[in-house]
Amino acid sequence: MKQIRIITDGSCLGNPGPGGWAAILRYNEHLRELSGGEKQTTNNRMEITAAIKALEALKERCEVEITTDSEYLKNGVTRWMKNWKRNGWMTSAKKPVLNRDLWEQLDALVARHNVTWKWTKGHASHSDNNRCDELAQAAARKVRGG
Fold first, then answer.
1. What confidence score (pLDDT) does residue 123 get?
2. Does 7 have pLDDT greater than 90?
3. Which of 48, 71, 72, 118 would suit a FRET pair with 42, their CA atoms being 20 to 30 Å apart?
């Protein structure tokens, strides 16, 4: 099974506001950069979207290591989602889970692969995370129109 490393990031110019997402996929010496944006969104939606778009780009079942600087994304997948699903997509405070549409998409994609999650400090020494941040911000500026 191929071993893929994915690094993701999301960005928003205002929250909510124009947003961008980015992902870097690494397989051996191969590198692929993905990015895109939405005119009106939130930072959290862009963080989840980055992971979705990266996993959608994989053509076969893989061993995947995803590195994110979003504790919301990492904790959502690794700690909270199991309970959300069991509780009918309600939080422990009995409120509907925000971004459920994206969490459900991500859940289905994660099930296709063997995925592990890592967290990295944002805007620090992780060069691929810094590159994702640049790409996500550029995508947000593009959809904003400047």
1. 79
2. yes
3. 118
Q: What is the mean pLDDT of the chain?
A: 96
Active site residue 88: no
CA distance 41 to 15: 7
Amino acid at position 6, single letter:
I
H helix or E strand, kind and range, residue 142: helix 127-144
* Mean pLDDT (whole number) for 35-51: 98
**Is 101 an active-site residue?**
no
CA distance 76 to 24: 21
Does the pLDDT at position 68 exceed 90?
yes
Contacts of 41 (CB under 8 A, 6+ apart): 12, 16, 17, 18, 19
Give me the count of residues in the chain: 146
Neighbours of 132 (CB within 10 A): 31
Q: Is 123 a catalytic residue?
A: yes
Does this model's pTM top 0.85? My answer is yes
Q: Is 104 a catalytic residue?
A: no
Can you name the residues that pair with 73 across neighbouring β-strands? none
